Amino acid sequence: MLDAAQVQEVEVPFGIEEIFFSRTDGRGVIEAGNSVFQRVSGYPWERLINAPHKLIRHPEMPKGVFHLFWERIKAGQPTGAYVCNSSSDGRFYWVFAVIVPQESGYLSVRIKPTSEMLYKVKEVYAELRTAETKGRTPAESAESLVQRLAEHGFPSYDSFQARALATEVQNRERQLGGAGTSRSETLAAAEAADQIEIALNGMQSMFAEALRIALNLRIAASQLGELGRPVSAISDNYALLANDMVDWLNTRALDETIGFGGIARSVSENLFLLNSADLLSEMAEAFAKDESLGEGDASAEQARLNAMAADYGEKAEECQIRTMRQAATVDSHLAEMRKHVTALNSIRMLCRIEGATLRHTGVSLDEIGSQLDGFQDEIGRRLVGITSLGQQVQWTTSHALSHQKRRA
């Protein structure tokens, strides 16, 4: 017979085809659920109904995760998260949960996660939990979670939840005998848009280095006296253009309305809503076969789920239209970026020319010229990468919209 510690290492089995449902009031008190939820939790209905949903919370789950998604759903934002739950006998089971705010509270649909992303999330959660045992607050832990996800290539939690849900849905579809290509173009667009945002954020820090190079130029100019006036002018112009580039990145390129930041947000929102709508519709269909509902009426739950699925489908379509409009501006953003980079390159060439005319003075600009060369080469490589990603966003977004219209 297993002792309590050994029981906690045992996973509750359930099928990948199964889908969980529960509905709570605004305080998180359970008002209804489906048979999968009841069976896997191991509690009888009389223990589940009118109990707080945290009844099934696993003690090893970081508090920061719950802090983050409670903050989100209280603000009316549908939210997805990997969650480890605990059954009545102490065993564990993982789900990917989609939590949907509604007028009277919240409802949640959950599926079995099977992608490699789950293993990465487990590592992050373990780190968060360790820090919490040492005094980190839930709010601090939530902030740390977002930071750790950014290190894994997700510039926002919206990006993470959208790509995680899409990946889990595709994996599930493949394991159930499907092609596993649902929303694949929208997922590709989201990944490309996120990479652009990450690349542009990286360019911001690079321009801090450009300003340091400009300062070195000014120091060299001061050593030359009157002969250094052209070098000083080059330094000032380079610093001015670098600052202009930073301002452009902040106010245009990364803007959440008109820039790449907006494209990334729109694509992620669209991806999450589409997959959430699919799961809500599937759950509504499953109620027709469910014989154990606890408190609740199957037809009422079906109607509620179908209404939410339809609402999310309409919102996803709005996101698609907005994304297409934003994607159409990619070329102009890239042209503006190339103009800035070309201007910086021209000043770099002037520095090289001026350095050659000053060799007789004993003050060499070769090292600074090499720094400018390296900086310019790196900016050029990043620009090529961003251009390629921008074209990918445009192409995949266009094809995803066409595919979605055919599905409709």
From TrEMBL:
Residue ranges that the Swiss-Prot or TrEMBL entry lists as coiled coil: none
Domain PAS fold-3 residue range list: 34-102
Protein known as: PAS fold-3 domain-containing protein
Organism from which the protein derives: Marivita lacus
Source lineage: Bacteria, Pseudomonadati, Pseudomonadota, Alphaproteobacteria, Rhodobacterales
